[in-house]
Amino acid sequence: MARGVEFLVSDMKPWTWLIFVAAALLEVGGDALVRRGLRGGGWLLMVAGFAVLGSYGLVVNSVKWDFSKLLGVYVAFFALVSILCGRYFFRETIPVSTWIGLGLIIAGGLIIQFGRG
Question: Higher pLDDT residue, 98 or 72?
Fold first, then answer.
C-alpha cells in the first residue's frame, strides 16, 4: 500500500467518524434545547440542554487523538451538522456565504486531518 494511502487508512477508523457525527448531533441538540428554553420553553429545557452538551463533551473526547487535531477536525463535523440542522429542522434559509464558509471550514478540517508536519 502506498505510504500516503496507508497513513489515511491507519488514522481513519470508521468508529471515529461515527463518534464525531454522534458528538455533533449531541452538541447541536443541546444547543437547540438551551435556545428553546431561553425563548420561553422554560428551565427544564435548559437543564436538559446542559446535560446533552455535557454528553457531547464525553463522546467527542473518547477519540484518542491529540487535543488540537481532535477539535480541529471535529469543528468541521459540527459546522456541517449545525448548518444542515438549521436548514432541515429549523427551516432556515442558508445564505450562499454560509455554504462557502462551511466549505472553507471543511477544507481546514481536511488539512488538519491529512496534513503532514
Answer: 98
Whole-prediction pTM: 0.76
Q: Rounded to an integer, what distance in angstroms lies between the CA atom of residue 114 and that of residue 6?
A: 12
Q: For 1-23, write each residue's pLDDT tens digit.
A: 444 433 433 456 778 888 988 99
Query: Which run of H or E residues covers position 81?
Result: helix 67-88
Residue/partner pairs of 27-31 with CB below 8 Å, 24 or more apart: 27/53, 27/56, 27/60, 27/78, 27/81, 27/82, 28/78, 28/81, 28/82, 28/85, 30/54, 30/55, 30/56, 31/82
